[in-house]
Every structure is written in structure tokens, then in C-alpha cells.
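Input (structure):
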């Protein structure tokens, strides 16, 4: 989009070609000033930092439904440990798909080779008095601190 004169010299027609012909800096040709470039870099770093912070804070999210509780690795780092000592820290029961059997789950920080769950239809003061027992299967959770689930 230029014109050629009779003596074969190139004559620029628009302001962009004129700026190129005058050898102005590229960032000024495209309409970018040094101030806009610095502002863009700062804004890009802020957005990157915000996304990184959100990902870091939301890592390993855990949502409990009853009662409703939401925790992440970040929030758990400020809380007192919930599972201490040799006793189970969480015990809950799930029902099989046809409601003919139940599965007892318990969490602990200790790894047992072959834990035994004792149960009965009535409560006892001494665990040796329970009529029935079952051997549990172990699964290790990948958390900040070791946690084992048995069922």
C-alpha cells in the first residue's frame, strides 16, 4: 500500500508506514507505551499470584456433610490434631447396597497389622465380653500426617 514515484522511490501512504520509515520504536508503533507495558506486566503477575494463592489455599479440600465442615491442608495446619492416641478418632457405619449387612469404618493414626473389631447386640464394659468379632482391612490415606482407615 505505498506508491512509487517516477524516480522509483517508495512513498509511504499511512501513518504506520511513516513511523516505520522514520524508524520509531516498535512499542510506540503498536500504540504501546513503556507505562502500559509495565502496567501489563504488573497486572499479569498479580493475576498469576492470585491464581497460585487460590490453588495453594484450596489444596486437599475435604468437605464433610454432617455437620457441614470444609477444610483444606492450609486450614488444617492451624487446627489442633483431630486424631491422637491409639484409639480410633472416627467411627462410622455404612450399609450394603441391599441393606443386609453393614460395614464399620474407623480411622486411626496407628498402623495395625490385623485389627479386630468386636461387636454385639448389647453394650459391654469390657471389650473381651463382646460375642462377635471381625478382622479389619487397612487403607492408608495420603495426608499431611499418616492416617489409616480400617473396614
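Output (sequence):
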Amino acid at each position: 500500500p505505498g506508491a512509487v514515484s517516477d524516480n522509483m522511490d517508495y512513498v509511504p501512504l499511512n501513518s504506520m508506514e511513516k513511523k516505520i520509515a522514520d524508524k520509531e520504536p516498535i512499542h510506540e508503533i503498536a500504540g504501546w507505551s513503556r507505562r502500559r507495558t509495565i502496567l501489563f506486566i504488573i497486572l499479569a503477575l498479580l493475576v498469576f499470584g492470585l491464581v497460585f494463592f487460590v490453588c495453594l489455599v484450596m489444596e486437599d479440600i475435604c468437605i464433610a456433610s454432617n455437620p457441614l465442615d470444609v477444610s483444606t491442608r492450609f486450614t488444617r495446619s492451624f487446627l489442633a490434631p483431630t486424631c491422637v492416641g491409639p484409639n480410633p478418632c472416627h467411627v462410622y457405619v455404612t450399609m450394603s447396597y441391599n441393606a443386609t449387612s453393614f460395614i464399620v469404618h474407623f480411622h486411626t493414626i496407628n498402623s495395625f497389622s490385623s485389627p479386630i473389631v468386636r461387636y454385639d447386640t448389647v453394650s459391654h464394659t469390657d471389650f473381651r465380653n463382646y460375642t462377635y468379632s471381625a478382622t479389619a482391612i487397612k487403607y492408608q490415606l495420603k495426608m499431611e500426617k499418616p492416617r489409616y482407615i480400617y473396614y
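Notes: The beta strands are 3-4, 10-11, 62-65, 68-71, 90-95, 102-108, 116-119, 132-135, 138-141, 147-150. The two ends are 78 Å apart (CA to CA).
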